[in-house]
Write a structure and sequence with these properties.
Layout (H helix, E strand, L loop, with lengths): L21 H8 L4 E2 L1 E7 L10 E7 L2 E5 L4 E7 L3 H8 L2 E6 L5 H8 L7 H4 L4 E3 L6 E3 L4 E13 L2 E12 L8 E4 L2 E4 L3
Antiparallel strand pairs: 1-11, 2-3, 2-6, 4-5, 5-10, 6-9, 7-8, 9-10, 11-12
Length: 189
């Protein structure tokens, strides 16, 4: 007989009409190991004679392959986040699948309340994608350039489905950076 351990019900969880609280759902989903990616896009200048455009980045663990033919991927963005707003206007974006030695990159782009991403990119080695114009990290396990095909509202997130335009393997032999139980982890820990 299969034994399961119930998730303890937190004393102040906000139960939804379905009965599961935010805390219960978060605890259950934290047991799903995920790869860590840096999603990037280049915000074009508002005017030709205005300030130059800026690179924008965010750490994502909700990223997955959707289809091989055509090649499609999906990233989940918090509704109203800077990346969600940018990708509603800018259809080209990129993904760098982070290696275990890029832990600081993941933490840097996961910070909340930052004013500008310009300083976050300042000392990072990257190349600019030819198809997207977005930064692709040097030393990433894999990089993809994408064009948005569809956006789906899903609760407090937007699911962005992108067609893969380019794919490369800058450092395919490194170990992946993973996220499990609320922490970044190295494979095998």
């Amino acid at each position: 007989m299969l034994k399961t351990t119930p998730v303890p019900r937190p004393p102040h969880g906000n139960p939804h009409a379905e009965g599961v609280s935010n805390d219960e759902f978060r605890a259950a989903m934290s047991r799903l190991a995920a790869g860590v990616c840096l999603i990037t896009a280049h915000e074009t200048p508002l005017a030709a004679d205005g300030p130059r455009g800026e690179d924008v980045g965010m750490t994502a663990t909700a990223f997955m392959s959707v289809s091989l033919d055509p090649p499609l991927v999906l990233v989940s963005l918090r509704e109203g986040s800077r990346m969600d707003d940018l990708l509603a206007e800018q259809p080209l974006w990129a993904v760098s699948v982070l290696a275990d030695h890029q832990l600081q990159v993941a933490g840097r782009f996961a910070m909340k309340g930052r004013i500008s991403d310009r300083l976050l990119f300042a000392d990072l080695p990257y190349v600019r994608g030819e198809a997207s114009g977005a930064p692709l990290l040097t030393g990433a396990l894999a990089t993809l350039e994408c064009r948005t095909e569809n956006r789906v509202e899903a609760g407090d997130h937007t699911l962005v489905i992108g067609r893969v335009l380019t794919a490369s393997l800058p450092s395919p032999d490194h170990q992946p950076l993973t996220y499990f139980r609320g922490r970044y982890r190295h494979l095998g820990q």
